[in-house]
Amino acid sequence: MLHNKILLTGANGQVGQEIKKEAIKSDLDLMALEKNDLDITSLESIKKIIEDFKPSVIINAAAYTAVDLAEEQQKLCQEVNTKGPELLSQVCRDNDILLVHISTDYVFNGSKSGPYVETDEEDPINQYGKSKYEGELAIRSTLKKHIILRTSWVFGIQGNNFLKTIISIGQKLPVLNIVNDQLGNPTSARSIAKCILKICQRYIQHGICPYGTYHFSNKPETTWHDFGISILELAYAEGLIRQIPKVKGIPLSEYNSKSLKPMNSVLSNLKVKNSFDVNIDDWREELIYTLRNLRR
Questions:
Q1: pLDDT reported for residue 290
Q2: What is the sign of the dihedral through the CA atoms of 111, 116, 122 and 127?
Q3: What are the C-alpha distances in Å from 216 to residues 150, 171, 273?
Q4: Which of 2, 39, 122, 165 has the fewest CB atoms lying closer than 10 Å?
Q5: 269-277 long-range CB contacts below 8 Å, 24 or more apart?
Q6: Residue 46 — φ and ψ, nearest 5°?
């Protein structure tokens, strides 16, 4: 059994915050670092932290996630999403550390009918997706002991996300236009955190685990339109908004966006479920949990 030290990058993000909360319930020794504590684009910065803390696992939850802005800030996006994972991989390889890295459904072009499996061909259609895909390639070519966990449509209590945007706009406007022809799986940051920590515990306990790329999301699949309606109805029930605005479904082609988006982001959870026996939560239950915590 390895020692239970885990280093977390991106501790202030949606998933990072939930990993911190969930780790408290376990026997894991988590060092949670924010951008100011650790620059993942600096090899020296990473090496110093590793030498001092000596973790068994690094969870990389640090990412550039502003999808539309990435079209303009390509260099910064590339630094964080591609160079950062590459440097972390090098340090993990040299120190025999498992790297758990969070990736995205945006590595796919979205043209497949049916859920994406891990062996489907990647073909990102925007800068954010390209930077994340290149980060994956860097990890695979550098480090054997890695878990790449792709997820989709992340929502949580912290950070900027669709859920909080809908509540904010829903308080101000009588009618909301929401895209109704994009398919995906809303996934709570809490679910992702629980999945990642289960993988970490398995590795620490046995000193090995089935390395590779996995998909993880909540169930069932839905559209942004239907997800938005669920958010508004439950937010109203929880007293977060005073009235439910009218929701109009529009095609993605009518939505004003600076970047292309995949039409289908549905991910198959079979591999991660079979390999790590993780629970696949229902996003509707996770939504209730998240809204109740937002209300508090």
A1: 96
A2: positive
A3: 6, 32, 9
A4: 165
A5: 269/215, 269/216, 269/217, 269/219, 270/117, 271/117, 271/118, 271/214, 271/215, 272/149, 272/195, 272/214, 272/215, 272/216, 275/210, 275/214, 276/195, 276/198, 276/199, 276/202, 276/209, 276/210, 276/214, 277/198
A6: -65, -45
Residue 228, CA distances (Å) to 61, 221, 250 in order? 26, 13, 12
Percent with pLDDT over 90 in the chain: 94
The closest alpha carbon to 272, from 150, 172, 188, 160, belongs to 150
**Which phi and psi angles does 159 have, rounded to 5°?**
75, -175
> Residues, the chain, total?
296
pLDDT value for 256: 83
128 catalytic per annotation:
yes
d(CA 146, CA 167) in angstroms, rounded, equals 37
Catalytic residue among 64, 106, 116, 128: 128
Q: Beta strand pairing status for 5-9 and 175-179?
A: unpaired
